[in-house]
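User: Run a structure prediction on this.
Assistant: Running it now.
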Amino acid sequence: MRVLLSTYGSRGDVQPLVALGLALQAIGVEALVSAPADAEFVELLGREAVPLEPAFMPVRQWIEQAKQSGLRLPQLAAKMVPAQFDAIAAAAEGCDAIVATGLFPSVAAARSVAEKRGIHFSWAAFCPLMVPSPHHPPMEYPGWSHPPELTDNLALWAFNAQAKKALFGEAVNTHRASIALPTLDNVRDHVFTHRPWLASDPVLSPWQPTDLNDAVQTGAWILPDSRPLPAGLEAFLASGEPPVYVGFGSMAMHAAEDPARTAIEAVRAQGRRVILGRGWANLALIDDQEDCFVVGEVNQQALFARVAAVMHHGGAGTTTAAARAGAPQVVVPQVADQPYWASRVTELGIGAAHDGSIPRAGSLLAPLRTALAADTRERAFAVAKTIRSDGAVIAAELLVAEVRGKRQ
């Protein structure tokens, strides 16, 4: 069996597919990943020996071009859908199934490839808010804020389907017509399918069954990491009390004024040392004091187990990694599903959420104090024991069963 795992997005979209690819390889399935060929993803897939089939363009290049073009989402989708279709179609040669995640136009392209080839297709989400349900509202899209008169979740999901059609319907249907596939009225539900996969931990993000779909929660797809920490980082960790890790992943943090300084000063005010994760915000040291250390991409599983707290943007992967490590969290949510993860961290008592997306002088002090409190650490340790690590294995076995079931 040969399976293509397709995504277009940041590390939070790519790394879980690598975990699924390894789980598939472990049960004898040939797995390859179609993802942006940014240097960090090329290095990741090469290190794990999972073949990479490049998406239509590196994601950082796409982001820069999108900003410079001034195009709106419908026009950007019209460019992405056919380009991703061609890239995914080439990568899917000889495949029996496609599993897709990432930006909606990319998933729509993957769905069309699967239809043209007559092979199995599964869509996976990393957060429950992505999956239609009467138990929660959908996320908002730019230009499609939820009307104040709509308060019922089902009505909001119907509005969400209209928004998806308005933003992406023309791009998807124009391309489908060009390749002799029928056009769609409800683009969202066709792309997401009636049986979506929810690749998130059931403790961190519980899912309630609904008649709207037959969603399956597999658990988070966690990539095991056995890499040692760099010698300099090891020396820093050993030289004093556990520091606070600060990193915002793939968030550029353009709206924040000097986020590194803001975070460092807040952590220092608590009498703690700091490890800065450089990330896409390019966080850097603000002085030559010995209480701060900066790192690039490292083994977060090993590092988070040795810090006093983790301050981050609230991505699904970072939230899960910190929770598994038993590290209290301060979440500074920026976009998309990140406010959801911030709320879950607060509700579980394993950390605190920053009020708003822009950290300022003093605004980090209260959530940091909560995260560094003894009872928060005790609760974080307790929750860590409940986080599952077998989600990718469950998904791999599920995929094989579904593909074989369709063949019979």
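Residues 153-178 form the longest helix (26 residues).
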